[in-house]
Design goal:
about 80 residues; mainly beta; 5 strands; globular
């Protein structure tokens, strides 16, 4: 089916970019680049998926190998729903 996904992350580092990952691979046309330095990242995408496909969200900070995504329900979340 066709799905809409939206994700927001409140992180320990400044985010410079984010994207969605489908079945372990970076999804084309899902990149968002941020012009300022902020610890919040958000992105949305519409994807055509098959049964058992997996979707995840990847906030990114250029130059860092890892960052913490803070567990704050008001700022970090991942949502999706079937469009058809």
């Amino acid at each position: 089916g066709v799905y809409y996904f939206r994700a927001e992350a409140y992180t320990s580092e400044y985010c410079t970019q984010s994207w969605f990952v489908v079945n372990g691979g970076r999804t084309s046309a899902s990149d968002t680049v941020y012009t300022g330095n902020d610890t919040f990242s958000g992105n949305s995408v519409i994807l055509k998926l098959s049964a058992n496909d997996t979707v995840s969200y990847h906030p990114y900070d250029s130059g860092n190998t890892s960052m913490t995504v803070n567990a704050n329900a008001n700022h970090s979340w991942f949502r999706g729903h079937l469009l058809g």
